[in-house]
Write a structure and sequence with these properties.
By secondary structure, the chain is of the alpha/beta class. The protein is built from 17 helices and 16 strands. It has two domains: 184 residues, Aspartate Aminotransferase, domain 1; 250 residues, Aspartate Aminotransferase, domain 2. A hairpin with a 6-residue loop joins strand 12 and strand 13. The longest helix has 20 residues. The protein is globular. The model has no long low-confidence stretch (mean pLDDT 95).
Length: 468
């Protein structure tokens, strides 16, 4: 029997939330008032929200039931013990530290382990990981695999370039590299997965050189699904078995559990080294809370305990990844170039290829982002020179992103395929009118993570001449 092109939801809907589509005139007023930064829009003014898949998930009936069982004791709550047990089973680590979200985990890790002027090597840093590294005086280094630049739908484009990793260690010295991080899936390059083979190669290099090896594993289950689907030798293993094998290769993990924790808030750190654990928890008490709650309520820990198990379900993961693929196919049919193959959590549109008349200095990804809101009430996010460009902290030179992308991140178990069809219909109209889109310029920005709070305005004719 031929596979259905449109994935079928492996759940039924029990509760609904109304959404409202503002008129075009109202949307024009709202985006102008937001200084053309979609992060400053009120959620009630967005029709379909694909800004992020972080904390936007729909919880299951079992999670809602678990929420009512939360133990809100300050220290040693049973809810923490439930959470700890689940994390130890999946992540294969001795010590578990709950955090209120991923960037808190990053802050604790880098504040504890990173020395000023030292390197943090990643397959590709995402925005907050890069920001936290820079904020602590570290130097973030990205070593994506060569295949990432190919337009062909190659497998495991999220891999790290192991040859470049070894060369970098030889050139700079292992003692100047405080850690190597593997981001799974690799968000910045299109949500692309990392193979088990590559993970084990990186782990072997780090062990030989005595360099700490960590995972940034917000979307670990989606990565495990791709390993099961596409890497020989794993087709008969369960998602949990693959996850356990993957995490057995590393010294520690940090996670935003707002993604594959299937929850609305939360994060974690898990390590094997007792001294690292002690250093992290000492700092945590100062800035987050007691180590058995870590800035979370007991009910949040209960929700995560359930969500981290539910996310390992193969039928759910198949639906999840196939829904992303379905949106990608629809956008391609509409004439939008995308990163292929589609990843686990989002479709990444190549705005640089779609809008070649807008230079990186004009942020083509932001121009497309604003077009989606104005035309359809859909909120997406730029993953290009607005997010990753600016002034290089080492050289002082102005840099642009390697690719000008727009990410459509799908919240888990939230939108139906008819919502995706609606998006694709408006994508066709945007493609038809693409030559009329103009770039944007920044009028105000912060030192770190400028895309969250910066203010912009549309370029005029003189601005376009200057930047062309």
């Amino acid at each position: 029997m031929k596979d259905l092109r449109q994935p079928t939801e492996p759940f039924r809907i029990k509760s609904v939330e109304p959404i409202k589509l503002l008129s075009r005139v109202e949307r024009e007023e709202k985006i102008k008032a937001a200084k053309y930064n979609v992060f400053k829009l009120d959620a009630q003014d967005v029709y379909i929200d694909l800004l992020t898949d972080s904390g936007t998930n729909a919880m299951s009936n079992r999670q809602w039931a678990a929420l009512m069982m939360g133990d809100e004791s300050y220290a040693g709550a049973i809810s923490f013990r439930h959470f700890e047990k689940t994390v130890k089973e999946i992540f294969q680590k001795k010590y578990v530290v709950p955090c209120h979200q991923g960037r808190s985990a990053e802050n604790l890790i880098f504040s504890t382990l990173l020395k000023k002027g030292h390197y943090v090597v990643n397959n590709t840093h995402f925005d907050t990981t890069r920001g936290n590294t820079l904020h602590k005086g570290g130097i973030p280094i990205d070593l994506p695999c060569p295949e990432v630049d190919s337009l062909d739908p190659l497998l495991f484009k999220g891999n790290m370039d192991t040859m470049r990793l070894e060369d970098f260690i030889v050139k700079h010295g292992a003692d100047k590299i405080d850690m190597v991080i593997m981001t799974v899936t690799n968000n910045s390059v299109g949500g692309q997965p990392v193979s088990m083979k590559n993970i084990k190669e990186v782990s072997s290099i780090c062990k030989k050189r005595k360099i700490l090896f960590f995972f940034d594993c917000a979307r670990f289950a989606e990565n495990c699904y791709f390993i099961k689907k596409d890497e020989p030798g794993y087709e008969n293993k369960s998602i949990e078995e693959i996850a356990q094998e993957m995490f057995a290769t590393c010294d520690g993990v940090m996670m935003s559990s707002k993604k594959d924790g299937l929850a609305n808030i939360g994060g974690l750190i898990a390590v094997n080294d007792e001294e690292i654990y002690r250093q992290i928890t000492e700092l945590m008490i100062l800035i987050e809370g007691f180590p058995t709650y870590g800035g979370l309520a007991g009910r949040d820990l209960e929700v995560l305990s359930v969500g981290l198990k539910e996310v390992l379900d193969y039928s759910y993961l198949r639906y999840r990844v196939e829904q992303v693929r379905y949106l990608g196919e629809k956008l391609k049919e509409a004439g939008m170039p995308i990163v292929e193959p589609t990843g686990g959590h989002a479709v990444f549109i190549d705005a640089g290829r779609l809008l070649p008349h807008i230079s990186p200095e004009g942020f083509p990804g932001q121009a497309l982002t604003i077009a989606f809101y104005l035309e359809a009430g859909v909120r997406v996010v730029e993953i290009g020179s607005l997010m990753f460009g600016g002034i290089d902290p080492v050289t002082g030179e102005k840099v642009n992103a390697k690719k000008e992308l727009v990410r459509m991140a799908l919240p888990r178990r939230v939108y139906t395929n008819s919502h995706l069809d609606y998006i694709a219909e408006w994508a066709s109209k945007i493609v038809a009118d693409k030559d009329s889109l103009r770039g944007y310029k920044i009028t105000h920005q912060s030192t770190f993570l400028r895309h969250f709070t910066c203010e912009l305005e549309e370029m005029n004719t003189e601005d376009i001449k200057i930047n062309s």
